[in-house]
Amino acid sequence: MPKTVRAAAVQIAPDLTSRAGTVERVLNAIAEAADKGAELIVFPETFVPWYPYFSFVLPPAQQGPEHLRLYEEAVTVPSAETRAVADAARKRNAVIVLGVNERDHGSLYNTQLVFDADGSLKLKRRKITPTYHERMIWGQGDGAGLKVVDTAVGRVGALACWEHYNPLARYTLIAQHEEIHASHFPGSLVGPIFGEQIEVTMRHHALEAGCFVVNATGWLSEDQIASIHPDPALQKGLRDGCMTCIITPEGRHVVPPLTSGEGILIGDLDMRLITKRKRMMDSVGHYARPELLHLVHDTRPARAREQIGLSDDFSEAEQSKPFEEAQDA
């Protein structure tokens, strides 16, 4: 494990008109952060193509056109967009955590992608429970994605937004000894109280896990807010709520947080602080009582179809043979 890791948390606006425009902003931000020495770069929740802000201010009966547009602009994994980010990770020798709207045939998912510094995709995970209005937009993830992965900057775990209010989801990552927790929220949502809650949540996770937290929230311009909904009363729900921050295992900000406007936070993570914190309190080690309390984690992927019998690779003629002949084949 490196002694020091330079991390970047990105707070920028998406392009609300095209996937390609947002991907270009992602690649530009990677270049800017890498030029400043960043080895880990974290982007906001479902940043590509954009977070579905419309679902927070439009009633369900009016969401159809925007929901369909999100389907058209969402990414598949893998795709040209994910390959472009992977190439940037490899060229810049940086670990990248990116939130995307993932399209899987007829469903959308809130997905986190972790690219290692060699460009490999180390983790694709889906938010296990979309929150409130989001349940009209995304499907649910499963326990297979609750996984910490080894990367060039250390052991990285990731959760999105209100997954942090599921203590067992957080504990699953803590129990896998995450060293850096990459997290993100939409930003420009709910109002000032959202940013305050994010800060409390991020600082608490850092303390409880004994890890660093790198959290990114998004940003919307006034023109973008007006394009989502013309009603000034509803526009209030699309402002503030930003808390882009980098937190130590002792619950302190590495650098002052970014709560408004666009920018990239850069902070150096002294990895020795992990042991310093865990010497006092290791919540899954010497401070745990597994004989009294322990977590059961189902890592099986959720599947709509499980095939038993002949493979799809068999030809139609082979599958029409009697069972005994097919088994011999």
From TrEMBL:
InterPro entries, per database record: C-N_Hydrolase (IPR003010), C-N_Hydrolase_sf (IPR036526), Nitrilase (IPR023919), Nitrilase/CN_hydratase_CS (IPR000132), Nitrilases_CHs (IPR044149)
Record-linked Gene3D superfamilies: Carbon-nitrogen hydrolase
PROSITE patterns to which the protein is assigned, alphabetical: CN_HYDROLASE, NITRIL_CHT_2, PIPLC_X_DOMAIN
Region (Disordered): 306-329
Regions of compositional bias (Basic and acidic residues) in chain numbering: 318-329
Occurrences of domain CN hydrolase (ranges): 5-271
CDD domains: nitrilases_CHs
Protein family according to the UniProt entry: Belongs to the carbon-nitrogen hydrolase superfamily. Nitrilase family.
Protein name: Nit6803 family nitrilase
Originating organism: Rhizobium lemnae
